[in-house]
Amino acid sequence: MDANKIFADKYGKDLMELHKLMVELEQIEIVRQRSGKPHWKTEKEYRDFFAKQTEAVAILQNDIIVRINPQISEMIGYSPEEVVGTPFAQFIHPSELPRVQKNYENRIEGREAPIIYKTIAQHKAGRSIYVILKAGTITYWEKPAIFLIAEIDPDHKYK
Prior knowledge:
CATH architecture: 2-Layer Sandwich
Strand content: 25-35%
CATH class: Alpha Beta
Low-confidence stretches: none
Number of domains: 1
Mean pLDDT: 85
Helix content: 40-55%
Radius of gyration: 16 Å
Number of helices: 5
CATH superfamily: PAS domain
Largest sheet: 5 strands, antiparallel
Order of helices and strands: HHEEHHHEEE
């Protein structure tokens, strides 16, 4: 079986879900731009979108985490207030930071970057968290941003 078939079988559903959620976020932004909706109405739509997500999701913009849902907080052990407004690099294991930063920069600049990849995050308690990241570029408040879905890597065996 070729590698593309294996990848499609394993991650095809994840890619479709990522795409669906990114389209929904883009629609919020497009409607906001076209309608001139007040800031608070659009903010409520974003809050509602994040509240209904069952997976850990975040938006990164200018190297900063600008929006998360509670599942991200649970995953990394920090309160939402400790996470939002903080550089995402603070939550990535130092050994993985150069690769994650490069993927982020490539994606924001429109260059090729993996859509799904495994990496290591850092929990507040100092332990490593092996995760699978699914990421894509969106527009958030008229600027490029990264929409991210994070999940614990089920293939990693914690000791």
